[in-house]
Design a protein that fits this description.
Layout: H1 3-6, H2 11-31, H3 37-46, H4 55-84, H5 86-106, H6 110-127, H7 129-139, H8 144-173, H9 175-197, H10 221-224, H11 232-235, H12 239-266, H13 275-302, H14 305-320, H15 331-357, H16 362-390, H17 396-427
């Protein structure tokens, strides 16, 4: 074997930096941010910035704005990344995220909070899942599945690490100083890592994807068949596309609501968990989702991905039944299986776009699905906050709605199984 082939491949450094980027960007804008909600809400009510009867909607709208903005910006971000390079857009994304956090930490205005959350959403277009997937895909062809599987754990680890780091800072420094403190990770760790270590593609440093040399690189089915499949216009004319899109929206409703607002339910008077215990629960959800991503992603290579999707969604739905009579003692009976199912669906929704519609217009089709997912998640956050406000801050009925929506998603996954089975039978 060629000595060059045995040397360490720089692409794995890219995977590490990209995974760190997801940990920081998703952790500070989505997964880890809910630990700030309770002290933020209490202070804004105390100073009269928001009315008590609108406090839960205030939180829900802010969270939804981040997610909604991230979805809407995705098509533009994809175009800019292709035109100006991933590295340049990553740096812009870091600057936007850091600015959003600093602005949020200093304001007493709900409107500025909303603006800050939108800035966080914009940053995800440039230093979130879309951009990091493009970067890693540039470096890997044969090992792309493994590399992207490792990469996507960053979204979960952000939800694990950030709450654990932030909760004691909030207790000792207050939420404003804590938010400023965690923003330093962007300025002093992530930005230097991007500047000094990120290369856009292997050719920039004279390498080939996967660490291959010119005499060992071989064509793959993926590289030979990139034009297979439907165009976006062809895809949106099929019932399968709209069934899948609606299913994705309904799945992201409970995922988003649980990752963003369940911590407030746990810290409510009815359940009574402390700030630290709530942060632990938040971290546990994302920690378990890492296992779900690995486990169900592996299963989808061995069995029908649509059937694996059915298993994931069934696990999520069965977990939500615990919400019918939630107590502090049963919270983890919900979080653990739900996190496993959520991790699996996160990976499978992206995979099934390619499985169902092919590689020809994969980025465009996935971009449209992402917007639909975002709408489902954002609507979920707004509805959950509104239902909690109507109930005087009690999230019980809001999370009963999560059971209903997850059940509806399960019915659509069952429908997808029938549709794809029929399609396969027609081909045979």
């Amino acid at each position: 074997m060629n000595q060059e082939k045995r040397t360490f491949f720089y692409g794995w450094i890219i995977v590490i930096i990209a995974t760190l980027s997801l940990l920081v960007s998703n952790g500070l804008s989505i997964g880890g941010f809910p630990v700030f909600y309770k002290p933020l809400r209490e202070e804004f009510v105390k100073i009269g910035a928001i009315r008590p009867e609108q406090a839960e909607s205030f939180i829900g709208i802010g969270a939804s704005l981040t997610f909604l903005t991230a979805g809407i910006i995705s098509p533009l971000a994809g175009w800019l990344i292709q035109k100006f390079s991933v590295k340049r857009m990553m740096l812009i994304g870091c600057l936007i995220l850091g600015t959003g956090l600093v602005l949020h930490s200093q304001t007493t205005s709900p409107l500025i909070v909303y603006l800050s959350r939108m800035l966080m959403g914009v940053s995800l277009g440039f230093v979130g899942v879309l951009a990091m997937t493009v970067l890693v895909a540039n470096w890997f062809v044969r090992l792309r599945g493994t590399a992207i599987g490792i990469l996507l754990t960053g979204t979960s680890f952000g939800g694990v690490v950030i709450p654990i780091l932030t909760a004691p800072l909030i207790e000792n420094l207050g939420w404003r100083n804590a938010m400023m403190a965690v923003s330093l990770v962007i300025w002093f760790i992530l930005i230097p890592a991007v500047v000094f270590f990120v290369k856009n593609k292997p050719a920039d440093i004279g390498l080939l994807p996967d660490g291959d040399t010119s005499d060992t690189q071989i064509p793959t089915p993926e590289s030979l068949n990139q034009q297979e499949g439907m165009t976006l216009f062809e895809a949106i004319k099929t019932p399968l596309f709209w069934t899948f899109a609606l299913c994705a929206a309904l799945i992201f409703y409970p995922i988003f609501v649980t990752s963003q607002q369940f911590i407030l339910y746990l810290q409510s008077e009815k359940i009574g968990l402390s700030v630290e215990a709530g942060a632990l629960a938040q971290s546990s959800l994302f920690a378990v989702s890492v296992a779900g991503k690995f486990f169900f992603g592996f299963l989808s290579d061995k069995f029908s991905p649509t059937k694996v999707m059915l298993t994931c969604c069934s696990v999520m739905f069965l977990a939500t039944l615990v919400l019918l009579n939630l107590t502090a003692n049963t919270a983890f009976l919900f979080l653990i299986p739900f996190g496993l199912g959520y991790g699996g669906t996160f990976v499978l929704l992206q995979r099934l776009v390619a499985d169902y519609f092919g590689n020809r217009d994969y980025p465009k089709i996935l971009g449209v699905i992402t917007v639909v997912e975002t709408l489902g998640a954002s609507l979920g956050g707004i509805i959950t906050g509104k239902l909690a406000d109507l109930a005087g801050g009690d999230y019980t009925q809001a999370f009963h709605a999560v059971i209903v929506v997850t059940g509806a998603a399960l019915l659509l996954v069952i429908t997808l199984n029938f549709m794809t089975n029929t399609k396969q039978e027609a081909k045979s």
